[in-house]
Backbone:
């Protein structure tokens, strides 16, 4: 386990250095949380491919969330690009579709390992949604699985998709630059959902994965 953390930390530091982020003074001692942190900083790198090198990166004052809970801006990476500012956070409990439909804090919350939120939503999340983002606040919601594969992970991923979006008839295809090259075509709100793993494992059948805009990335 200690070796896993060391490898993850080295990858994390290298990815943060690629986008000229500052080294972090602290890091988790748990491999699962370390993998979430790695996915988080890899996502920043993916957004840099779309929006260009960040203008500035503000490290979390407290190193990300170490357990599921509310979104806290000071526990997230704040990344300013030339055209947008995003927050990249881990272990955030998010409201589902009832909150988006009602336009207020409502319904159950569902833990998400990594989320991406545009800065324009932060005030509303903190003041009107008790610190829990709703689907219309999210750019992306990722699950991170470091360790053995089990079929319940697939049900969990599908459950996350159904928690965050409706399935719609695809609109005319227009290619967009998207993080990790994974498009979202059948979901409303248009939240990108990906499962990250450290090694290849069985995934949903392609037809099912495509229908529900569910993706797998090996990191």
Residues:
């Amino acid at each position: 386990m200690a070796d896993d953390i060391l490898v993850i930390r080295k990858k994390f530091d290298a990815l943060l250095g690629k986008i000229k982020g500052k080294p972090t003074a602290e890091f988790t001692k748990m491999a699962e949380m370390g993998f979430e942190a790695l996915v988080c900083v890899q996502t920043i790198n993916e957004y840099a491919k779309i929006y260009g090198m960040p203008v500035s990166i503000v490290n979390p004052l407290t190193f990300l969330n170490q357990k599921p809970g509310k979104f806290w801006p000071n526990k997230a990476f704040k990344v300013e690009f030339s055209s947008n500012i995003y927050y990249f956070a881990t272990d955030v409990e998010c409201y589902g579709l009832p909150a988006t439909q009602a336009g207020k804090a409502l319904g159950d919350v569902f833990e998400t390992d990594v989320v991406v939120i545009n800065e324009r939503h932060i005030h509303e999340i903190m003041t009107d949604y008790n610190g829990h983002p709703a689907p219309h606040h999210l750019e992306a919601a990722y699950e991170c699985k470091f360790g053995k594969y089990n079929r319940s992970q697939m049900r969990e991923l599908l459950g996350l998709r159904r928690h965050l979006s409706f399935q719609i008839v695809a609109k005319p295809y227009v290619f967009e630059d998207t993080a990790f090259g994974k498009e979202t075509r059948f979901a409303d709100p248009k939240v990108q959902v990906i499962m990250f793993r450290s090694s290849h494992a069985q995934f949903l059948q392609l037809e099912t994965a495509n229908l529900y805009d569910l993706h797998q990335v090996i990191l």
Observations:
- The radius of gyration is 16 Å.
- The longest helix spans residues 31-51.
- The mean pLDDT is 92.
